Automatic annotation (TrEMBL):
Signal peptide start and end residues: 1-24
Keywords noted in UniProt: Signal
Protein name stated in the entry: Neutral/alkaline non-lysosomal ceramidase N-terminal domain-containing protein
Length: 471
């Protein structure tokens, strides 16, 4: 009897220990699938003629810190509205988590597909979706990514430590919004800029820092995450699908290190390579080399710290970004319905109507924050201005704050409050779906996630208002 009791108590103890260690073990899995379209299928602006460099959909799953956390980035223009929600739901179902713990972003390349299944459905009513959306292909990538994630978590590796690194990237990012002496946008310096006089204008407000996190099992690096804020275009509308310079830099680094590399575009809505890019084809590789060199220096600057599961947390808040006053559902619906509407405007109106419909249906955008010891990675929507990233860092200067933007693409550009007054392309009717009040909503969300609810920091305060006084 006594020995039976001892056996039983031993079994209970073992059971307890097993469940304790299972709960405490942090593990990581990675997945990747090809996201290149078929030849002839639509890229964002032109049909696919060739796959110049394969597009990728890839992600990391963290297990052992409550329910799984999934971070995913795709080499596409944008994944908006119901397509972003569906993508997250499918990844959540595949990994046994909830979709508020899944984030899906794009790197915003332009020789790459766009993905808004709601917009595609609006166009399909008039048999007009095929030049813009290959719906079976988009669903197939989402399903293959979910399947790959489900397989990957069965072979997850233990995580024992993490490392962070940073490096300034030189001569890539530049502000696109060139102000006159009154502080209004006089010139938009687009991502490729042939005019040397415009290239010579100041760099403007940017965040030059590329930030890196590596997960380790002992001495073995398992996966790298990097963030850097810029539009990714060197040149486009070629018909050659490619991940452009940030994706090429990521792929080069993955090849050089042999370590899975997940790159996110930071808040690069008002940032592009324009000052350093005349649009010449050879400059794509030059920009790639500059970003890859920044990734290498960040990699070499790494400092390792232990990472127990207790040091990992995921928090999220749901927001509605208020609609721009110009967002007129009836007018957009009429533009979508008419076959007289030029094709480029028709898909644009369908994308905008998809955001309008999402808002009207009460759908919310999920803003996530991954805590890894003293690092926070914020996951934000849209073509977010760099000032949001600078404000997030300023809210918590005691922490290493990273930002991935270009999550839900529904809002399009998200400026700071003053940027709407300043004018320019990004805050124009065609380019943004949100009102100046979006800043307050996102500021409150970031402050909540960074645990500084009474912060005085405002993205608006980082916006340049003086201007260089243009020639
Ligand atoms: Zn853009």
């Amino acid at each position: 009897m006594k020995s039976l009791l001892r056996l039983l108590s031993l079994a209970v103890l073992c059971g307890l220990f097993a469940s304790f260690s299972a709960a405490a073990e942090l593990r990581l899995a990675t997945f990747a699938v090809d996201a290149s379209p078929k030849i002839g299928a639509p890229l964002a602006y032109v049909p696919t003629k060739e796959i110049t460099w394969p597009l990728s959909c890839r992600g990391v799953v963290l297990l052992g810190a409550e329910k799984p956390i999934v971070l995913c980035a795709v080499d596409w223009l944008g994944i908006g509205n119901d397509a972003n929600r569906l993508f997250r739901q499918k990844l959540a179902a595949a990994t046994g988590t909830t979709s508020d713990r899944v984030t899906v972003h794009t790197l915003h390349q332009h020789d790459a597909p766009r993905c808004d299944l709601g917009a595609a459905a609006l166009l399909a009513k008039y048999d007009a979706e095929k030049p813009h959306y290959d719906v079976p292909f988009l669903n197939d990538v989402i399903d293959r990514a979910a399947d790959a994630a489900a397989v990957a978590i069965k072979q997850a590796s233990p995580v024992t430590s993490m490392a962070i690194g940073t490096a300034e990237v030189h001569d890539v990012a530049s502000n696109r919004r060139m102000l006159d002496a009154a502080g209004k946008v006089a010139i938009t310096r687009y991502t490729a800029c042939a005019d040397p006089k415009i290239r010579a204008l100041p760099t403007g407000v940017i965040d030059p820092v590329l930030r890196l996190v590596t997960f380790y099992d002992g001495d073995q690096p398992l996966a790298v995450i990097t963030t850097y804020a810029t539009h990714p275009q060197s040149y486009y509308r070629t018909g050659g699908a490619n991940p452009d310079f940030p994706g090429m830099a990521r792929d080069a680094r993955q090849k050089a290190t042999g370590v899975f590399h997940l790159h996110f575009n930071g808040a690069g809505g008002n940032i592009g390579a324009g000052k350093f890019n005349d649009g010449s084809h050879e400059n794509r590789q030059t920009l790639t080399d500059k970003v890859a060199d920044g990734m290498r220096r960040a990699w070499e600057s790494q400092e390792k710290t232990p990472l127990p599961a207790a040091g990992v947390a995921w928090n999220s808040v749901k927001v509605q970004l208020p609609a721009a006053s110009h967002l007129d559902g009836e007018r957009l619906a009429a533009e979508v319905a008419s076959d007289k509407t030029p094709a480029a405007l028709r898909v644009h109106s369908a994308d905008k109507l998809s955001y309008y419909n999402s808002l009207k249906a009460g759908e919310k955008i999920n803003i996530g924050c991954l805590s890894l010891a003293d690092t926070r990675i914020l996951f934000l929507p849209g073509e977010l201005f760099v000032e949001y990233q600078l404000a997030a860092q300023q809210m918590r200067p005691d922490l290493n704050v990273m930002m991935a933007a270009y999550g839900d693409y529904g809002p399009f550009y998200i400026g700071t409050r003053i940027a709407f007054w300043q004018g320019g392309y990004e805050t124009s009717e065609g380019a943004t779906n949100v009102s100046p009040d979006a800043e307050q909503v996102l500021t409150a969300a970031m402050a909540q996630l960074l645990e500084v609810p009474d912060t005085k920091v405002r993205p608006n305060d980082f916006t340049d208002t003086t201007g260089p006084g243009l020639p």
